[in-house]
Amino acid sequence: MTERIYDRDSHQKTFQAAVLRCEAVGEGWRVALDRTCFFPEGGGQFGDRGTLTPAGGAPIPVTDTQEEGDLVWHNVTAPIPAGTEVTGELDWALRFARMQCHSGEHIVSGLFHARDGVDNVGFHLGDEEVILDLSGPVSWEEVQEVERLANEAVSMDLPVSCEYPPEEELKTLTYRSKLDLTEHVRIVTIPGYDVCACCAPHVNRTGEIGLIHFLSSQNWKGGVRLRMLCGSRAVADVMAKQNSVAAISARLSAHQSQVAQAVERQSGELEAVKQENARLGKLAAQALAETLPAGEEALCFAELPTPALRALVNAAVEKGVPLCAAFAPEGERFAYILGAGEGLDLRPLVKEMNAALSGRGGGSAAMVQGSVAASRQDIEAWWAARKTVNKS
Ligand SMILES: [Zn+2]
Predict the structure, then answer these.
(1) Residue 241 contacts by C-beta under 8 Å, 6 or more apart in sequence?
(2) Ligand 1 center–CA 155 separation, angstroms
(3) CATH (residue range 283-391)
(4) What pLDDT, on the 0 to 100 scale, is given for residue 126?
(5) Average pLDDT for runs of 10 along the chain of length 392
(6) CB 154 within 8 A of CB 259
(7) How far is CA 59 from the centre of its chain?
(8) How many helices (H) does the chain have, and how many strands (E)?
(9) Phi, psi at residue 375, to the nearest 5°?
(10) Where are the domains of the chain?
(11) 102 alpha carbon to ligand 1 midpoint, in Å?
């Protein structure tokens, strides 16, 4: 079996061990050691990474750690024969960041349990952020109040204990647990905040967590899904967002605490500009339609957005143009809208045009819309030479 050093000392980063077994697995290998600091994936936390260095050899990366029965298996990129003495070293920055997140999660889950009567029913400690699913609805205001209280627990620098209480004591103990275990239960206690059954390594004191920071809350299966960050990850996030807010603030000439209102104001202005733009486009379309002689087919090219192009075609058909084809440049292509008066079916025509001018699009007998990959000259040449529109 593997002695689990991380179980009693979560801060030991290096260790000496002997290889018990070595097996090929997938595209690499896995080795079981007689003792290890590497925490195997469990309880929502990923397996540790780091290196194993055989005596006199080069470090071999450990890409993952998994548990199987009483053995801890280290996934490695090269085989290490049984009996080899190795020095193991954790990717400590990664492990410590995960411990900060995990211990932070215990504090907030304890607070939600005590204050709101909701439980942590799903916990995922990814490499980016912590995802926490709560069993019942909680308002964002309450989430932020829990954030404030959790950070108070951090600043109190409380001791975090991980112990295996005797069975008798366990019976009298009230603790959060996802499993119905009765023996060999590891209890993680943060005094005044949380008592929880958990197998993972934790920080020694709450001060090590540094910062607990919620990112978002969304409705999730009758409860809420929270995203949060702790420790160095939370600090990095706050710094990145500070840069973002500072840039928006400078751009909008708004105080940093007022950027949301400034963006709101600008969105309103943008909407008004869009509406004005649409109104002007329609006016231009109507003016252009007025220049078209009634009773004659029309081919127009206009730098107009699609709604205005449609207005042009509608206005033309309304004033008695039997068939109006309007084209507008759109990158390398031309967008088109074709409209026809009663008695015409545009669909055979548009099919013929798409085939000849590498186009796509379609519509009804009276109006079709699409685009062609052709030059203005090509369009004009095809239009002049095309077959007559079929009568419907
Ligand atoms: Zn836990």
Answers:
(1) none
(2) 20
(3) 3.10.310.40
(4) 79
(5) 95 98 95 98 92 96 96 97 97 95 96 96 88 96 98 98 92 83 86 95 97 97 96 94 97 96 96 95 94 94 94 95 96 96 92 95 96 96 79 44
(6) no
(7) 34
(8) 9, 20
(9) -85, 165
(10) 3-90, 96-242, 283-391
(11) 6
Which pTM was predicted?
Answer: 0.78
Residues making up the chain, counted from first to last: 392
Structure tokens belonging to residue 70: 């009483």
Quote the tokens at residue 364: 């009804």
- Using the mean position of ligand 1's atoms as its centre, give its distance from the Cα of residue 141 in Å: 25
CATH number of 96-242: 3.30.980.10
Alpha-carbon distances of 356 from 103, 339, 350, 351, 373, rounded to whole Å: 67, 19, 10, 9, 10
Quick one: angle between helices 92-116 and 231-252, nearest 10? 80
Q: What span, in angstroms and rounded, lies between the C-alpha atoms of 11 and 103?
A: 14
pLDDT for position 389: 63
Instruction: Copy the structure tokens of residue 249.
Output: 């603030």
* CA of 234 relative to ligand 1 center, distance in Å: 19
Non-local CB neighbours of 208 within 8 Å, separated by 6+ positions: 96, 99, 100, 103, 231
Burial track 74-110 (b if 16+ CB lie within 10 A, e otherwise): bbbeeebeeebebebbbbeeebbbbbbbbbbbbbbbb
State how far the Cα of 22 lies from the Cα of 79, in Å rounded to an integer.
7
Q: In what order do the strands lie in the sheet with 212-220?
A: 120-125, 130-134, 223-230, 212-220
pLDDT at position 390: 54
Spatial distance between the Cα atoms of 48 and 90, rounded to a whole number of angstroms? 7
Measured in Å, residue 61 CA sits from the centre of ligand 1 at: 26
- How far does the centroid of ligand 1 lie from the alpha carbon of residue 7, in Å? 13
Tell me how far the alpha carbon of residue 302 lies from the centroid of ligand 1, in angstroms.
65
CATH class of the domain defined by 3-90: mainly beta
